[in-house]
């Protein structure tokens, strides 16, 4: 086919085509174990404008994540949410869609059934990514925020898995995904209120056995900063912001640097509180009322074992990494 401008199109039509390519609308769907996210953005040359974003607490890993099953009610919630996402994307006329599924779908025996049902009922094609690919996308998202300025360990606490990425400002050094997500550990170990020493020790013993190679890498490279990728780290930040009456708005912030003592105080409060007390704390969304306890346990353990006392939040995470891959 001749790629030159045809006579009846004229130069203006050619310019219009170029503008359509430059001003592309893309939609990113992140199917997390707890939450489904939708991000719609427009790219104009090298500029990026977020047009729409939302998240829905689908709880795909509810009930039987450790049995590797998506239960029927969670399956249906997922379909309904993605049907709504599909309608929203149509309204915004998204040119490209990339939907990625992580731990809950990749580990479920009926994960492929879910992917097939979504395609049939919503038209959305889901790409189930490996833990390694998930970690790589998280790195790209965090890098986009500008949070990586020193030798750092990135940590992303999901419902099904936790990803760790060792990196510096120039390169990714090492990455790995572990099946120790907050929903998995909560369903397996969290039976007390407030969490008692027995449950804490069971969780810590489990993650200690899982993370042996992580701490070998940390011992070798000695990262200076722990960068938390969105999720639970946004909750820690919200609690610190409210405690200190700061004017920071997490929804409009790429990076938040913690005062380490503030984090330690907030984590202690979370670990010693009851479900009711946490549910009444401004800054904790309902989905995280219990999982934030697991997240604080893991975060404290990693900080202690890796001998890190600098903590930074990157609100850019996997979604932004996927977005970077589209543009």
Task: Write a brief structural summary.
By secondary structure, this protein is of the alpha/beta class. The chain has 13 helices and eleven strands.
Polypeptide structure, described:
The chain is of the alpha/beta class and 327 residues long. The chain contains 13 helices and 11 strands. The protein has helices spanning 10-22, 72-92, 103-107, 111-122, 131-145, 182-189, 197-210, 212-221, 232-243, 260-272, 275-279, 291-306, 318-326, and strands at residues 23-31, 36-44, 47-56, 96-101, 126-128, 152-157, 162-167, 172-178, 225-229, 255-257, 311-314. The strands form 2 sheets. Strands 8-7-6-9-11-10 form a 6-stranded mixed sheet, with helices on both faces. Helix 7 packs across helix 12 (291-306), helix 9 (232-243) packs across helix 10 (260-272) and helix 10 packs across helix 12 (291-306).
Radius of gyration, whole Å: 21 Å
> What general outline do the C-alpha atoms trace?
globular
Beta strand count: 11
Q: Report the average pLDDT across residues.
A: 92
Order of helices and strands: HEEEHEHHEHEEEHHHEHEHHHEH
Please describe the biggest sheet, giving its number of strands, its sense, and whether it closes into a barrel. 6 strands, mixed
Outline the low-pLDDT stretches.
1-21
Fraction of residues in β-strands? 15-25%
Alpha carbon gap, first and last residue: 26 Å
Total of helices: 13
How would you classify the helix and strand content by structural class? alpha/beta
Question: How much helix is in the residues?
Answer: 40-55%
Strand order of the largest sheet: 8-7-6-9-11-10
């Amino acid at each position: 086919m001749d790629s030159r401008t045809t006579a009846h199109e004229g130069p203006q039509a050619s310019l219009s085509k170029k503008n359509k390519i430059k001003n592309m609308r893309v939609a990113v769907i992140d199917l997390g174990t707890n939450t489904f996210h939708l991000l719609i953005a427009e790219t104009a040359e090298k500029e990026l404008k977020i047009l729409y974003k939302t998240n829905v607490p689908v709880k795909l890993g509810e009930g039987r994540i450790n049995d590797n099953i998506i239960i029927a009610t969670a399956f249906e919630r997922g379909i309904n949410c993605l049907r709504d996402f599909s309608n929203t994307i149509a309204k915004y006329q998204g040119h490209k869609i990339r939907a990625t599924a992580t731990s809950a779908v990749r580990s479920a025996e009926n994960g492929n059934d879910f992917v097939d049902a979504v395609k049939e009922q919503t038209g959305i094609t889901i790409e189930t990514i490996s833990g390694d690919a998930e970690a790589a996308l998280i790195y790209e998202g965090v890098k986009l925020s500008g949070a990586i300025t020193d030798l750092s360990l990135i940590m992303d606490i999901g419902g099904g898995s936790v990803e760790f990425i060792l990196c510096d400002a120039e390169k990714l050094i090492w990455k790995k995904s572990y099946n120790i997500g907050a929903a998995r550990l909560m369903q397996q170990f969290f039976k007390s209120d407030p969490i008692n020493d027995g449950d804490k020790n069971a969780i810590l013993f489990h993650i200690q056995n899982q993370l042996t190679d992580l701490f070998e890498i940390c011992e070798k490279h000695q990262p200076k900063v722990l960068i938390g990728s969105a999720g639970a780290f946004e909750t820690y930040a919200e609690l610190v912001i409210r405690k200190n009456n700061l004017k920071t708005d997490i929804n409009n912030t790429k990076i938040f640097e913690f005062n380490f003592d503030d984090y330690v105080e907030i984590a202690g409060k979370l670990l010693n509180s009851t479900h009711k007390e946490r549910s009444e704390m401004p800054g904790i969304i309902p989905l995280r009322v219990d999982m934030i306890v697991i997240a604080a346990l893991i975060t404290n353990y990693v900080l202690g074992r890796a001998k890190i006392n600098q903590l930074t939040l990157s609100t850019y995470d996997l979604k932004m990494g996927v977005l970077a891959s589209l543009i």
